[in-house]
Amino acid sequence: MKIRRTLLATFIAFFPAVASAGDAARLDIIGFSKDGSVFAFEEYGVQDGSGFPYANRFYIDTATDKYLAKTPVRIRLDDENASVEDARDKAGRDAQGVTSLADEELRANAGDMVASNPVTEQSADPFKVTVNPRFVFPAIDPPVNLQLEEIAVPPSESCKNIGEIKGFRLTLVEAKPDAQPVLLHEDTTVPTSRGCPLGYSIGAVQTLYPEAGKPVIAVLIAVRGQGFEGPDYRWLAVTKQR
Fold it and tell me: What residue range is the signal peptide (predicted)?
Protein backbone atom coordinates (compact mmCIF):
# COMPACT_ATOMS: atom_id res chain seq x y z
CA MET A 1 0.00 0.00 0.00
CA LYS A 2 2.81 2.40 0.85
CA ILE A 3 4.44 1.73 -2.52
CA ARG A 4 1.15 2.46 -4.31
CA ARG A 5 0.69 5.73 -2.43
CA THR A 6 4.26 6.74 -3.30
CA LEU A 7 3.71 5.98 -6.99
CA LEU A 8 0.43 7.90 -6.99
CA ALA A 9 2.04 10.93 -5.34
CA THR A 10 4.85 10.83 -7.90
CA PHE A 11 2.32 10.72 -10.77
CA ILE A 12 0.29 13.63 -9.39
CA ALA A 13 3.42 15.71 -8.90
CA PHE A 14 4.54 15.00 -12.46
CA PHE A 15 1.22 15.40 -14.27
CA PRO A 16 0.77 19.20 -13.81
CA ALA A 17 4.20 19.81 -15.31
CA VAL A 18 3.10 17.94 -18.42
CA ALA A 19 -0.34 19.58 -18.56
CA SER A 20 1.07 23.11 -18.33
CA ALA A 21 3.40 22.78 -21.30
CA GLY A 22 3.58 25.31 -24.12
CA ASP A 23 1.86 24.93 -27.46
CA ALA A 24 3.82 23.64 -30.46
CA ALA A 25 1.68 23.87 -33.58
CA ARG A 26 1.66 20.83 -35.82
CA LEU A 27 2.65 21.38 -39.45
CA ASP A 28 0.83 20.06 -42.52
CA ILE A 29 2.39 20.88 -45.88
CA ILE A 30 -0.60 20.93 -48.22
CA GLY A 31 1.43 21.43 -51.39
CA PHE A 32 1.89 23.56 -54.49
CA SER A 33 -0.29 24.56 -57.39
CA LYS A 34 0.43 22.54 -60.52
CA ASP A 35 2.72 25.23 -61.97
CA GLY A 36 4.40 25.96 -58.61
CA SER A 37 3.08 29.52 -58.44
CA VAL A 38 1.37 28.98 -55.07
CA PHE A 39 2.52 27.15 -51.94
CA ALA A 40 0.12 26.23 -49.15
CA PHE A 41 0.55 24.87 -45.64
CA GLU A 42 -1.41 24.59 -42.41
CA GLU A 43 -0.54 24.84 -38.72
CA TYR A 44 -2.91 23.50 -36.10
CA GLY A 45 -3.18 22.52 -32.46
CA VAL A 46 -4.72 23.39 -29.10
CA GLN A 47 -3.99 26.83 -27.69
CA ASP A 48 -2.26 26.79 -24.33
CA GLY A 49 -4.11 28.60 -21.60
CA SER A 50 -7.55 28.59 -23.26
CA GLY A 51 -7.54 24.98 -24.45
CA PHE A 52 -9.31 26.05 -27.66
CA PRO A 53 -8.47 24.27 -30.95
CA TYR A 54 -7.12 26.31 -33.86
CA ALA A 55 -6.08 25.85 -37.47
CA ASN A 56 -4.39 28.43 -39.70
CA ARG A 57 -3.94 28.04 -43.46
CA PHE A 58 -1.35 29.99 -45.46
CA TYR A 59 -1.30 30.48 -49.24
CA ILE A 60 1.83 32.11 -50.68
CA ASP A 61 2.55 33.50 -54.14
CA THR A 62 5.98 31.99 -54.78
CA ALA A 63 6.96 34.68 -57.30
CA THR A 64 6.60 37.47 -54.73
CA ASP A 65 6.72 35.54 -51.42
CA LYS A 66 3.50 37.33 -50.44
CA TYR A 67 0.22 35.92 -49.14
CA LEU A 68 -2.64 35.57 -51.58
CA ALA A 69 -5.47 38.04 -51.10
CA LYS A 70 -7.76 37.29 -48.15
CA THR A 71 -5.29 34.84 -46.65
CA PRO A 72 -4.05 33.54 -44.22
CA VAL A 73 -7.24 31.87 -43.04
CA ARG A 74 -7.15 31.73 -39.25
CA ILE A 75 -9.65 29.71 -37.23
CA ARG A 76 -10.00 29.33 -33.46
CA LEU A 77 -13.06 27.60 -32.03
CA ASP A 78 -13.82 29.13 -28.64
CA ASP A 79 -15.48 25.95 -27.45
CA GLU A 80 -13.82 23.49 -25.10
CA ASN A 81 -15.90 20.69 -26.61
CA ALA A 82 -14.67 21.40 -30.14
CA SER A 83 -11.86 19.27 -31.56
CA VAL A 84 -8.78 20.11 -33.57
CA GLU A 85 -10.36 18.30 -36.50
CA ASP A 86 -13.38 20.60 -36.24
CA ALA A 87 -11.06 23.61 -36.51
CA ARG A 88 -9.16 22.08 -39.43
CA ASP A 89 -12.37 21.27 -41.28
CA LYS A 90 -13.62 24.84 -40.89
CA ALA A 91 -10.28 26.28 -42.00
CA GLY A 92 -10.40 24.09 -45.10
CA ARG A 93 -13.97 25.12 -45.92
CA ASP A 94 -13.28 28.81 -45.36
CA ALA A 95 -10.15 28.64 -47.50
CA GLN A 96 -12.17 27.33 -50.43
CA GLY A 97 -14.24 30.50 -50.19
CA VAL A 98 -11.25 32.79 -50.72
CA THR A 99 -9.01 30.82 -53.09
CA SER A 100 -9.81 28.80 -56.19
CA LEU A 101 -7.15 26.21 -55.37
CA ALA A 102 -8.56 22.87 -54.26
CA ASP A 103 -6.70 20.68 -51.79
CA GLU A 104 -6.73 17.89 -54.38
CA GLU A 105 -4.55 19.92 -56.76
CA LEU A 106 -2.21 21.08 -54.00
CA ARG A 107 -1.70 17.64 -52.49
CA ALA A 108 -1.21 16.10 -55.94
CA ASN A 109 1.72 18.53 -56.34
CA ALA A 110 3.15 18.27 -52.85
CA GLY A 111 6.71 18.07 -54.14
CA ASP A 112 9.45 16.64 -51.92
CA MET A 113 10.40 17.29 -48.33
CA VAL A 114 14.19 17.40 -48.72
CA ALA A 115 14.91 18.37 -45.09
CA SER A 116 13.06 18.00 -41.81
CA ASN A 117 14.07 19.31 -38.40
CA PRO A 118 11.17 19.34 -35.89
CA VAL A 119 11.35 21.54 -32.82
CA THR A 120 11.96 18.42 -30.72
CA GLU A 121 15.27 17.75 -32.52
CA GLN A 122 18.27 18.41 -30.27
CA SER A 123 21.21 17.20 -32.36
CA ALA A 124 20.73 19.05 -35.67
CA ASP A 125 21.79 22.60 -36.46
CA PRO A 126 18.63 24.76 -36.25
CA PHE A 127 20.20 27.54 -38.31
CA LYS A 128 21.81 25.75 -41.24
CA VAL A 129 20.91 22.94 -43.61
CA THR A 130 22.41 21.58 -46.83
CA VAL A 131 20.15 19.63 -49.17
CA ASN A 132 20.03 17.88 -52.50
CA PRO A 133 17.00 19.78 -53.84
CA ARG A 134 15.30 16.76 -55.40
CA PHE A 135 15.17 12.98 -55.16
CA VAL A 136 17.54 12.17 -58.01
CA PHE A 137 20.52 9.89 -57.41
CA PRO A 138 23.24 10.47 -58.27
CA ALA A 139 22.40 14.14 -57.81
CA ILE A 140 22.09 16.25 -60.95
CA ASP A 141 21.84 19.56 -59.03
CA PRO A 142 24.44 21.29 -56.89
CA PRO A 143 23.63 21.10 -53.17
CA VAL A 144 21.74 24.03 -51.72
CA ASN A 145 22.90 25.66 -48.49
CA LEU A 146 20.35 27.54 -46.39
CA GLN A 147 21.52 29.78 -43.56
CA LEU A 148 19.20 31.31 -40.95
CA GLU A 149 20.36 34.17 -38.71
CA GLU A 150 18.44 35.71 -35.84
CA ILE A 151 18.61 39.50 -35.77
CA ALA A 152 17.44 42.02 -33.18
CA VAL A 153 14.48 44.21 -34.18
CA PRO A 154 12.69 47.01 -32.33
CA PRO A 155 9.91 45.60 -30.12
CA SER A 156 6.34 46.79 -30.46
CA GLU A 157 4.58 48.21 -27.40
CA SER A 158 2.87 44.89 -26.75
CA CYS A 159 6.19 43.01 -26.80
CA LYS A 160 8.15 45.14 -24.35
CA ASN A 161 9.43 43.49 -21.14
CA ILE A 162 9.09 40.02 -22.66
CA GLY A 163 12.68 39.54 -23.79
CA GLU A 164 14.80 40.40 -26.81
CA ILE A 165 12.44 40.42 -29.78
CA LYS A 166 14.03 38.91 -32.85
CA GLY A 167 13.59 38.93 -36.59
CA PHE A 168 15.55 36.77 -39.01
CA ARG A 169 17.63 36.77 -42.16
CA LEU A 170 17.55 33.80 -44.54
CA THR A 171 20.06 33.26 -47.33
CA LEU A 172 20.52 30.58 -49.99
CA VAL A 173 23.69 29.67 -51.83
CA GLU A 174 24.30 26.81 -54.24
CA ALA A 175 27.41 24.76 -53.54
CA LYS A 176 29.16 25.49 -56.82
CA PRO A 177 32.15 27.65 -57.80
CA ASP A 178 31.61 31.42 -57.67
CA ALA A 179 28.03 31.08 -56.42
CA GLN A 180 26.80 34.19 -54.62
CA PRO A 181 24.43 34.13 -51.65
CA VAL A 182 20.82 34.97 -52.47
CA LEU A 183 18.96 36.87 -49.79
CA LEU A 184 15.54 35.24 -49.38
CA HIS A 185 14.28 37.31 -46.48
CA GLU A 186 15.46 39.94 -44.00
CA ASP A 187 13.37 41.57 -41.28
CA THR A 188 13.63 45.19 -40.25
CA THR A 189 10.52 44.86 -38.09
CA VAL A 190 8.20 41.95 -37.38
CA PRO A 191 4.50 41.95 -38.27
CA THR A 192 2.02 41.96 -35.41
CA SER A 193 0.63 38.65 -36.71
CA ARG A 194 3.92 37.02 -35.69
CA GLY A 195 3.37 37.98 -32.05
CA CYS A 196 6.51 38.48 -29.95
CA PRO A 197 9.12 36.17 -31.53
CA LEU A 198 12.06 35.16 -29.34
CA GLY A 199 13.77 32.74 -31.72
CA TYR A 200 13.64 30.79 -34.96
CA SER A 201 14.78 27.50 -36.46
CA ILE A 202 14.66 25.84 -39.87
CA GLY A 203 11.93 23.20 -39.58
CA ALA A 204 11.58 21.79 -43.10
CA VAL A 205 12.46 22.39 -46.74
CA GLN A 206 10.00 21.53 -49.51
CA THR A 207 10.76 21.67 -53.24
CA LEU A 208 8.80 21.26 -56.45
CA TYR A 209 10.05 20.85 -60.02
CA PRO A 210 6.86 21.35 -62.05
CA GLU A 211 6.48 20.11 -65.61
CA ALA A 212 5.58 23.66 -66.68
CA GLY A 213 7.02 26.37 -64.47
CA LYS A 214 10.12 27.29 -62.53
CA PRO A 215 11.52 25.09 -59.74
CA VAL A 216 10.35 26.30 -56.35
CA ILE A 217 11.76 26.03 -52.84
CA ALA A 218 9.79 26.65 -49.64
CA VAL A 219 11.64 26.95 -46.33
CA LEU A 220 9.43 26.31 -43.30
CA ILE A 221 10.61 28.20 -40.22
CA ALA A 222 9.49 27.52 -36.66
CA VAL A 223 8.87 30.71 -34.67
CA ARG A 224 9.36 30.49 -30.91
CA GLY A 225 7.35 32.85 -28.73
CA GLN A 226 6.27 33.11 -25.12
CA GLY A 227 2.91 31.46 -24.56
CA PHE A 228 0.58 31.52 -21.59
CA GLU A 229 2.01 28.37 -20.00
CA GLY A 230 5.35 27.95 -21.74
CA PRO A 231 7.09 28.45 -25.09
CA ASP A 232 4.83 28.43 -28.15
CA TYR A 233 5.88 27.46 -31.65
CA ARG A 234 4.19 28.66 -34.83
CA TRP A 235 5.14 28.37 -38.49
CA LEU A 236 5.94 30.63 -41.40
CA ALA A 237 7.34 29.93 -44.86
CA VAL A 238 9.76 31.72 -47.18
CA THR A 239 9.38 30.80 -50.84
CA LYS A 240 11.52 31.33 -53.92
CA GLN A 241 11.18 30.47 -57.59
CA ARG A 242 14.59 29.46 -58.91
Answer: 1-21
